[in-house]
Write a structure and sequence with these properties.
By secondary structure, the chain is α+β, with helices and mostly antiparallel strands. The protein has helices at 7-29, 38-60, 65-108, 113-128, 157-166, 178-185, 202-208, 241-290, 302-305, 309-313, 316-323, 326-336, 341-348, 352-366, 371-386; strands spanning 132-139, 142-150, 171-172, 189-191, 213-219, 224-231.
Length: 389
Amino acid sequence: MPTTRPLGELTDIEARVRDLARTTRTMIEAEPPDPNPEPARRIVATLTGLSAEIGEQFTAIDLDPPRAADLCELLVEVGELQSDLREHTLGLRFQTLDRIHGALARIRQEESSAALIDAAPAELCAACGFDRAMISRVRGSTWVPHTLHLVADEEHEVNVALKAFLAGAEIPLVTSMLEAELVRRRAPALIHDAQEDARTFRPLIEVAETRAYVVAPIVTTGPVIGFLHADTFSSGRPLTSHDRDNIQTFAEGFGLIFERAVLVERLALQHERIGKAFADTESMIGELCAAQVQLARQAPDAATTSATPASMLTAPEARINSVLTPREREVLGLLASGATNVQIANQLVVSESTVKSHVKHILRKLRASNRAEAVSRYLRLTRNQHRPA
């Protein structure tokens, strides 16, 4: 036979449902929404437990019809809250993707590649809910911070020290560093405990007092050209794999936009140069046509004949460029400086096996039997290149 429980027990359940309803509405209506779905999932789990408790009341308590009706209403309300939270959780990712799309669309309107770089960190923070974001460029085996954006606490002593530290900083990409690994793997990363992770660049992490951060490489059709770093220093919001995926999505879109902008700028420069060349040629032809012909012998100008197209095509540098790829020429130059395979690998941020493969190709293309012979031919060609005519 059902037992009778105090009415206060039902009142307690009602109070908890009301509290969860307020929390749910606050979460759903937040602007911008928290991109982390875990809080919503925890509330859904709590509501599931409450739903089970309400179900038990029907069999454990001798209810009069009005109280039974109240419990039914609570059960319906719990079900609606669960439905709203699940819909909110599913929509979070799509909302973030929509904001990323909008941010990239705004960046695309910038007039130059330099303006794109300056705009990226602020748009990343606005789209993905980060407090601090930084864009850096990769120059050879060096990581160079470029632009830092702070959403809040710009005058905080930590942020002031961080801006001072980044001014003119050039960070070597040693093999053991996380960013060097990202250059090789071309994949994003989430660092949960930046203060203890041995792969981080300790001076920067200590100055920034970063607890956790996400980072993604900026990739074009060629090598990695830069990084995007972001954290939640001011809000303290825990970073999740969703933040890692979001920064990767932003970095991929930015890389495509930046590459297109650079190509457009190069085409515009070439257009200007070609136009000037044609204008100069037209002017020269006009002068030749207008000049009077004189009956006299003219000795050829030595300076002019030494720079004919034929001599340019047979220049040592042109011959090297036609045989070796840019990376192979870079490896050959380091070989000529006396660097070992390990030193070359660290310098170029590649594996030692990759360096060995490049050396093998260089020897075959230069028809050299060993490294010393390849270096000798390289030095001979470069000496010829710089020898006075």
